[in-house]
Design goal:
242 residues, 40% helix, 17% strand, globular, binds pyridoxal-5'-phosphate
């Protein structure tokens, strides 16, 4: 399990570049860079490269498929795993076993199921974020913004979930500025709901490789970065073995 020193050095440099861009955006917005956490989205990246990434300090890893994460987790010690993709009920047990944090809770039914499993499998509440489909995009998962306040009360009552905040996947945009309204709306939604019930935590997971500086300006506390750290992913269907 020796890490390739050149590969580790490459990730040290990539991490530093992204952290610098985060810090610059944070200062522009009068925020502290220390309040923003970097999650390296490691889908389609194989364990040897991920071990080098962890050695370089990229210890929070995000995966969008339970199956893929299950195949990698044992081979990548020292990482904290975030689930950032849709979760089917029949994979929820595996997910609670595997992930340290589930960012993609998108229904009351899933929250209830995760709560029951967390009570069974964990000694501490499972950290979760509620995914919001801010743009009401039919192709995207997540609560509709106008439906979330009504769902929130019953989710916050679940004893084995620690509801730390909200997450969104922005629209695919050519220009990062075009994503700003989505991020601003998620922040406003969190502010209004947090005002009503302080059991909802302050985290805002938003921003990816193409738009994370804008997300940080709009209040992101977690950015989920794949390509800016690992390079382009192979096209869907191509071998993930890289
Ligand atoms: C793939 C993915 C990311 C990272 O996207 P990049 O554009 O590679 O930075 C972030 N969030 C989710 C939910 C993803 O599926």
């Amino acid at each position: 399990m020796t890490d390739d020193p050149a590969e580790v050095a490459g990730f040290v440099a990539a991490r530093a570049r992204v952290l610098e861009a985060i810090a610059t955006a944070a200062r522009r917005a009068g925020r502290s860079p220390a309040d923003i956490r970097l999650v390296a989205v490691s889908k389609a990246v194989a364990p040897p490269r991920l071990r080098a990434a962890v050695a370089a300090g990229l210890t929070d890893l995000g995966e969008n498929r339970v199956q893929e994460a299950a195949g990698k987790a044992d081979a990548v010690p020292g990482a904290r795993w975030h689930l950032v993709g849709p979760l089917q009920g029949n994979k929820a047990r595996r997910a609670v076993d595997l992930f340290d944090e589930v960012e993609s809770v998108d229904s009351v039914g899933l929250a209830v199921r995760l709560d029951r499993l967390a009570g069974e499998l964990r000694t501490t509440p499972l950290p979760v974020l509620l995914q919001v489909n801010v743009d009401a995009d039919p192709a995207k998962a997540g609560f509709r913004a106008d439906a979330l306040p009504a769902a929130l009360g019953s989710i916050l009552d679940l004893p084995h979930l620690d509801v730390r905040g909200l997450m969104t996947v922005g629209r695919l945009v050519d220009d990062a500025e075009a994503a700003r309204p989505t991020f601003a709306l998620l922040r406003e939604l969190l502010e209004s709901m947090h005002g009503d019930d302080a059991r909802l935590g302050p985290e805002l997971s938003m921003g990816m490789s193409d738009d994370y500086p804008v997300a940080v300006e709009e209040g992101a506390t977690i950015v989920r970065i794949g390509r800016a750290l690992f390079g382009e992913r192979p096209a869907p269907g191509a071998s993930a073995d890289r």
